[in-house]
Amino acid sequence: MNRKNAFGRVLLIVSLTATLCLSIDIIYGYLTKERSWNEQMRTSLVGVLEDSMEKRGKEDVYIVSHSYSRRDFKDDSPKIVTMDVGEGPKEYIVPAYKHYNNIAENPTERLFDSVILEEQPLAADSLNMLWDRLLVKNGISGTGNIRVSVTDLSENISMTYAKDTRYLPLSDSLFSYYIGYRCEVEVTAFASPFSYWRSMTLWDWMEIFFLLLSVVFFFWIWTVYNRRSVEVRRSNATELAGTENEIPVVVLKETLSCIYQLGDDVLFDSTNRLLRRGNQVKNLLPQASALLLGLLEADGYCMLMSDIYLLLWPDGSGRPERVHTVAGRLRSSLAEMSPQISLVSGNSKYQLKIAHSIEENTAPDVDLQN
């Protein structure tokens, strides 16, 4: 039975390890695919925007600019740009997040973009069509929607959507990119949340299948292991009870006091609550003496916790910790008298154990009080 239990523990460890490894691998695969999906959505839109600006003919536009500084990603302060459109110079404040997410890096390129988009604005439906086409080409179903927002020189904003806005609550805003010297054109991408099931491969399905199989196997092994452990405990308890039943406790005197012989040389006077071994005498506390007497008179010298409650605390105030305290005191007293007598506990029971049996004898007069 011990070998079976050891084998069961090994199977439990193996199945639990397999379950954890498969779970970690599936979670890691999901996070990796989600990052890849977001990156493809993002790079695809950037590619569409850059192609759209190139097709509008940057090379045909000539602009004079004296600023060629690149973006500084450590500076989160708003940027101030100055433009003169015929009414004198005017300053515009560009938030840092718009400045950093502009598809062009230096002011000259952004001036080109502003002039081009003034003559040839972006169409949301055209961008969305190109974006969906590129996503499908990369293996992603085209379910996106694009919004184009334009801020004019008077800070008025106009917006157009590629698709019906009724579907927007079902999707997430992924990211926004900005175009122009004032970052006046905002292109925002919307898409349905990442669906792991749609991106799953045959290997992913196999991993989920083996994960479920390992979970079922783990719980099955756990159930069998617990059942066998209970059987082992019951078998050990039966063997222990059978062995202890062969150990007699001899009543030596039943006159004024009831005296029990425990083992070969230990006497217990239940009336005077005394233990004696030769010249050694030990006084027991009332509850410890009552517990020892109850165990001696119980079948197999074994008592359930519930029976001990009734014996020591008839008023119903018995608690496990109180029983443990009384049992500890009795166990200590028995250990002082003889190492062959002990009090063991387990499975909500207490049992008196005596190491070897004795022959029944009679001692008509034993005085424990000397």
From TrEMBL:
<dbReference type="GO" id="GO:0003677">
    <property type="term" value="F:DNA binding"/>
</dbReference>
<dbReference type="GO" id="GO:0006355">
    <property type="term" value="P:regulation of DNA-templated transcription"/>
</dbReference>
<keyword id="KW-0472">Membrane</keyword>
<keyword id="KW-1133">Transmembrane helix</keyword>
<feature type="transmembrane region" description="Helical">
    <location>
        <begin position="6"/>
        <end position="31"/>
    </location>
</feature>
<protein>
    <recommendedName>
        <fullName>OmpR/PhoB-type domain-containing protein</fullName>
    </recommendedName>
</protein>
<keyword id="KW-0812">Transmembrane</keyword>
<feature type="transmembrane region" description="Helical">
    <location>
        <begin position="208"/>
        <end position="225"/>
    </location>
</feature>
<dbReference type="InterPro" id="IPR016032">
    <property type="entry name" value="Sig_transdc_resp-reg_C-effctor"/>
</dbReference>
